[in-house]
Amino acid sequence: MKSHAIVRALDVGYGNTKYSTANAAGKIRYKAFRSLAPTAAIADISAGTMCKRDTVCVSIDDVCYEIGPDSEYVVDVEHVPVSDHSYVTTPEYRALCRGALAYMRAPRIDVLVVGLPVTRVTSHIAQLRTELSGPQKLDDGRSIEVNRVIVIAQPIGGALYTTFSSGDYNSFREQTTLTIDIGAGTSDALVSRGLKAFPKRCETHAGGMLAVLRQLADTINESYGVECSTLMLDKALRSGVLPIAGQKIPVSSMLDSTRPIIDQAINALMARVGTVDDIDRIVLIGGGAPFFEPRVRHRFPNHEVSVCDAGIFANVRGFQIAGTAS
Questions:
Q1: How far is CA 26 from CA 4, 77, 107, 214, 317, in A?
Q2: Maximum Cα–Cα distance for the chain, whole Å?
Q3: Which residue, 5, 161, 197, 271, has most beta carbons within 10 Å?
Q4: What is the spatial distance between Cα 14 and Cα 34, in angstroms, rounded to a whole number?
Q5: What is the distance between the alpha carbons of residues 39 and 325, in angstroms, rounded to a whole number?
């Protein structure tokens, strides 16, 4: 890759959209916003007396979507996120991609690396390349030219980041690693030796943190008679408390109810992965990794299990590495 080439990475998940950008000095930074794509608000009801939302407007098929860190202020109370295999084909997904490109602040991108769940790459790679290549027009009149698009399986990004951040590549390339990526809508498993994957031992399970949050919502409804949105519960998991009618309820007291959902996801992945006798270590990546960690350690007590320190940015950091090396 030429030193002056502009490389950017994009990881659109069910829960968060992660992307790379650069500061004034050219240093790569990683940012994220919720994967919410509400239709744009009709008017500013504050008449300019309150802070302007940090969003960009993107039109897809003549529908204007408001994308960005403050998009939650535009979401309907009854908003239900798309969480099935059709997600990649939806206009909301395309709007999130284009919105993230706007936040990259680059009029031209020479190489854009994006990721998909491991079982979606083959079926959607051509479509994604076509949609993200060429001029990407924004509603404010700007256009971003994307010259080349690379599509890879999401956990490969995490494996790349883990490899190059470990400082011990020679040892890593001889090991067989099981990388488990816990996202919002899916959980992915990738078995690799170094950076060479075993395709027949890779799997995507349509159950990630959204399934955990839905189970948690049912438990809260049964216990307190209150309905909570997944967005509200996601924030509560991060803070440890859930504000309900002026009270602050510890979320930890209700997490036991989610154990069967987490175990089900692990079982589904392992049905494809098969034996773990040849697995040297297990790496957990993704925003849901800390919540799955106890059950993974319980399932594999004899294995080295580590949680990637990059959190939700593990994949997108790996994508940036892949694009720079291409």
A1: 10, 40, 14, 41, 16
A2: 64
A3: 161
A4: 9
A5: 38
Q: Name the residue with tokens 């909301």.
A: 92
Rounded to the nearest 10°, the torsion over CA 229, 95, 132, 117 is 10
Question: What pLDDT does 77 receive?
Answer: 54
Sketch the domain layout of the chain as residue ranges. Answer: 7-154+316-325
Residue 295, SS3 per DSSP: helix
Residue 244 has pLDDT above 60, yes or no: yes
pLDDT of residue 44: 59
Q: At what angle do helices 121-132 and 91-103 cross, to 10 degrees?
A: 50
DSSP class of 73: G
Instruction: Report whether CATH 3.30.420.40 matches the domain 7-154+316-325.
Output: yes
Listed in sequence order, the residues at least 6 apart from 73 whose beta carbon sits closer than 8 Å to its beta carbon are 53
Residue 37 contacts by C-beta under 8 Å, 6 or more apart in sequence? 65, 66, 67, 71, 91, 92, 93, 95, 96, 99
Quick one: tokens of 76? Answer: 């309907």
Q: What are the tens digits of pLDDT across the range 31-88?
A: 999 999 988 876 554 545 456 789 999 999 999 999 999 988 887 655 555 655 678 8
